[in-house]
């Protein structure tokens, strides 16, 4: 393998191989290995401090109470199945790293967490297929900060012309890396864009989310633009969602639709969604994990502010989109997710919640057929529709007392993850939007 790999690197002119990881603060990081010494690292990968999994988004220092500190080393071992030459960085390639300690998958490795949750779904006979639906802003630097690249509206043809070169270059690079680009349209916010990628198995879907963010930001940079996935950049404009689309399969068959009732959900789908909704307030510490996330989760912004579900309902946390032909529906969409979430942790936790719904035969509430934000407080409470957490502090408290998600994470990952979230909450909760965006802009 090693000789073949090295020959391939030489042949395609790769100088550096970037070994990527995504930490508990959802920052994508890398150490790059040079081709001429790569052979020395093939077996054990590259070393990183265990404390890397304790770092909050504000600075490079471990959060107190994480259980991790300056002593302790893990290996970042390349998963060569994810090796990809980077079309936007000639001479560079990327590969995702698995965190390994003492020769075993490390309990704090996010990728390993997702693999374990895929294994839990598998124990129920289910394969999870997913896609992350990204929104992002294109911005310019100005003398006093940042400004959007246009002032257009949703699906604006003018915006499409303004951004044609940069979007074409992004799409090309995504396709070259094996991602199947589906739809592109200018989103509602000024300079805001959406490019969707076809669904795939859960692990590659999360891997692709890393590659997607890397590609969009790198290519925007080459066009002298800043691409940002920060959930809410402008207070009165649309936020950046990263809705998770998901379906459950068995033996090549999509289990979402109820084949005996046209347009209905199967029992397994109903229980899975009930599990997501049951755990959602705690799950949000993983799917909408930054202080900034909660500026986005507000009623009437299609961001999933209410704990409910509905067919084709864009204000419900879980939307079940109808399919134009039977079988329908084919998948669910969780809207209470944004791109400041680590995709491995977010998707893994969603699977854990859904699988718990199946194991406990949770009953799904009635679908909501109106905008829940237009109901009165008492109408909502009669129908069992809760407003979801309105700040990160609330979501952290929910996660602290959610044994199902804590057990899924495992003791060490839960401790470090909660410490990182707590440090971010304490360090950022009093920042105003401008200061928060300034801090996050080069992170997400
Ligand atoms: N921008 C919205 C959000 O914050 C989503 C809009 C849409 O439904 O695509 O999630
Ligand atoms: Mg959208």
Features:
35% helix; six-stranded mixed beta sheet; alpha+beta; twelve-stranded mixed beta sheet; binds glutamic acid; single chain; binds magnesium ion; Creatine Kinase, Chain A, domain 2; Ubiquitin-like (UB roll); 2 domains; 24% strand; 444 residues; 13 helices
Description:
This protein starts with a helix and ends with a helix. The longest helix is centred in the middle third of the chain and has 21 residues, at 202-222. The protein has 2 domains: 2-106, Ubiquitin-like (UB roll) (Roll), CATH 3.10.20.70; 116-440, Glutamine synthetase/guanido kinase, catalytic domain (Creatine Kinase, Chain A, domain 2, 2-Layer Sandwich). It is of the alpha+beta class. The protein contains 13 helices and 18 strands. The chain is globular, with a radius of gyration of 21 Å. Helix 2 runs parallel beside helix 8 (343-359), helix 8 packs across helix 11 and helix 10 (392-400) packs antiparallel against helix 12. The strands form 2 sheets. Strands 7, 8, 9, 10, 11, 12, 13, 14, 15, 16, 17 and 18 form a 12-stranded mixed beta sheet that branches. The model has no long low-confidence stretch (mean pLDDT 96). The site of glutamic acid has 10 residues, from loops. The site of magnesium ion has 3 residues, from loops.
């Amino acid at each position: 393998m090693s000789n073949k790999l090295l020959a391939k690197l030489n042949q395609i002119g790769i100088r550096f191989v970037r070994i990527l990881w995504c930490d508990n603060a959802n920052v994508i990081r890398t150490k790059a290995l040079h081709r001429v010494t790569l052979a020395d690292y093939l077996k054990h990968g590259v070393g990183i401090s265990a404390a890397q999994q304790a770092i909050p988004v504000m600075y490079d220092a471990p959060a107190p109470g994480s259980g991790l500190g300056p002593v302790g080393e893990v290996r970042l071992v390349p998963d060569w199945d994810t090796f990809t030459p980077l079309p936007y960085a000639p001479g560079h390639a990327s590969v995702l790293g698995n965190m390994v300690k003492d020769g075993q998958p490390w309990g704090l490795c996010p990728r390993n967490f997702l693999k374990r949750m895929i294994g839990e779904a598998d124990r129920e006979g289910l394969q999870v297929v997913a896609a992350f639906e990204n929104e992002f802003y294109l911005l310019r630097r100005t003398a006093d900060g940042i400004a959007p690249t246009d002032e257009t509206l949703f699906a604006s043809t003018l915006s499409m012309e303004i951004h044609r070169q940069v979007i074409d270059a992004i799409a090309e690079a995504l396709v070259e890396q094996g991602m199947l680009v589906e739809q592109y349209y200018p989103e509602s916010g000024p300079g805001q864009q959406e490019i969707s990628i076809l669904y795939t198995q859960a692990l590659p879907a999360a891997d692709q989310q890393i590659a997607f963010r890397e590609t969009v930001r790198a290519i925007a940079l080459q066009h002298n633009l800043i691409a940002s996935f920060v959930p809410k950049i402008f207070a009165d404009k649309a936020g950046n969602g990263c809705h998770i689309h998901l379906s459950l399969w068995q033996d090549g068959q999509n289990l979402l639709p109820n084949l005996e009732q046209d347009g209905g959900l199967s029992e397994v789908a109903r229980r899975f969604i009930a599990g997501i909704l049951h755990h959602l307030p705690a799950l949000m510490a993983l799917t909408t994990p930054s202080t900034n996330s909660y500026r986005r989760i507000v009623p009437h912004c299609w961001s999933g502010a209410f704990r409910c579900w509905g067919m084709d309902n864009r204000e419900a946390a879980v939307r079940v989109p109808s399919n134009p032909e039977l079988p329908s529906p084919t998948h669910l969409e969780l809207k209470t997710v944004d791109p400041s979430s680590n995709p491995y942790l977010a998707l893994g936790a969603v699977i854990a919640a859904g699988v718990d719904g199946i194991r406990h035969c949770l009953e799904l509430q009635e679908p909501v057929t109106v905008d829940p934000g237009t109901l009165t407080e008492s109408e909502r409470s009669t129908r069992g529709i809760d407003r979801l957490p309105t700040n990160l502090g609330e979501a952290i408290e929910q996660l602290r007392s959610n044994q199902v998600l804590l057990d899924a994470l495992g003791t060490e990952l839960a401790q470090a993850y909660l410490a990182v979230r707590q440090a971010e909450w304490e360090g950022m909760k009093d920042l105003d939007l401008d200061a928060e965006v300034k801090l996050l802009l080069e992170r997400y």
